[in-house]
Design brief:
With 348 residues, the chain is mainly alpha-helical. The chain has 20 helices and no strands. Helices cover 79% and strands 0% of the residues. Helix 19 packs antiparallel against helix 20 (336-345). The protein is globular.
Length: 348
């Protein structure tokens, strides 16, 4: 009898535990939607957010999620509509979500060419929080595209003054300036940063600053030191430095060593593929692209897919390239260069 009671208690405890697990594991439709966004399943995410609406879940979170999903689908007008709705139903006292939505909304405006509207969003953010260095940097980028160099420069200066040791931001400012023809000004920022912070700056940061300054010998020396000291992130810039020096075999070995010894990286797989293209090792380049795509890195997926098409073109397989480009332009309709390339491929 005691044994029977003991068994019954064990079974009852197991049942209660499983019931508890079920409750813990149950996710709302909103949570399922954001999980789908993380895996780039934007259409599926929209389905979950529709179910969330029917179930009466949080409308603000639903609008935010729908906006992000539409942004991922490059349906910018629908993204804008949802982000604007989210702001409409928000409290008059801004919370973290309001700031978050404003950044997304500005991105959507920018993607549709509504630069003035994007600028106004950053104006609004900075009127509420005047120490948002990201907003200064992003507004400066928009101003530069609008042709207002002087005001853009003021915003970049402000962003750096707020975060003088944010070297990622300084590199990003350089890249924007270089894109719009102000490379020399970008160099001034890099050189000024090296002079002001050299004693406290890591070898990795020094190396990438010198890389952009095109002092590749100095870049190589600092980046080699960084890598030898165990700084794995140095591999990307070290490889690119060897590429700039024309040593594609060595650059490829740097990327391959990273992938062997460290975590897999879509960024490194992409760079390895570019090296292998230079070496005319097209099958190896395709294999690297495929490995990168398996990682489902949203920030690199478009680049990897485009480079995959380019490799097929180099291989002379224009039929395959055209097929892949047809899918690509459907998923990324705002890529004008790809649209032109697709028209060319259809004639091959």
């Amino acid at each position: 009898m005691k044994n029977k009671i003991r068994v019954m208690l064990v079974v009852l405890i197991a049942i209660l535990y499983c019931m508890g697990c079920g409750k813990e594991e149950a996710q709302s439709n909103i949570e399922l939607g954001f999980t789908a966004i993380e895996t780039l399943e934007y259409e599926q995410a929209l389905g979950y957010f529709e179910q969330a609406t029917v179930a009466g879940e949080d409308e603000r979170e639903i609008c935010r999620g729908q906006g992000i999903a539409y942004l991922g689908l490059t349906n910018y007008e629908s993204a804008i509509a949802n982000f604007e709705r989210c702001l409409e139903i928000s409290s008059s006292i801004p919370d973290a979500m309001v700031y978050d939505i404003n950044y997304y909304l500005a991105t959507a405006y920018y993607k549709t060419g509504r630069l003035e509207d994007a600028k106004k969003v950053y104006d609004a953010v900075l009127s509420m929080k005047d120490k948002e260095h990201d907003a200064y940097f992003l507004r400066g980028s928009v101003l530069l595209e609008l042709g207002d160099y002087e005001k853009a420069r003021l915003d970049f200066d402000k962003a750096i003054s707020l975060m003088p040791t944010n070297y990622d931001q300084i590199v990003a400012i350089y890249e924007v300036l270089e894109k719009f023809g102000y490379r020399e000004v970008g160099n001034e920022y890099l050189q000024g940063t090296l002079e002001a912070s050299s004693k406290d700056m890591s070898n990795y940061d020094k190396g990438r600053m010198y890389f952009y300054l095109e002092d590749f010998e100095s870049a190589r020396n600092y980046l080699e030191q960084a890598r030898d000291a165990g700084d794995a992130q140095a591999a990307y810039y070290l490889g690119r430095t060897w590429e700039a020096l024309g040593e594609y075999n060595y650059a490829a070995s740097v990327y391959s060593s990273y992938l062997k010894d460290q975590d897999e990286s879509a960024l490194i797989y992409n760079q390895l593929a570019l090296c292998q293209m230079q070496l005319k090792e097209y099958d190896a380049a395709l294999a690297a692209i495929e490995e990168g795509l398996k990682l489902e890195d949203a920030s690199l997926k478009q680049t990897l897919l485009y480079n995959q098409i380019v490799i097929y073109e180099f291989k002379g397989d224009f039929k395959k390239a055209a097929t892949l480009m047809g899918v690509y332009v459907k998923n990324y309709p705002d890529d004008a260069e790809a649209q032109r390339e697709y028209e060319f491929l259809k004639t091959r």
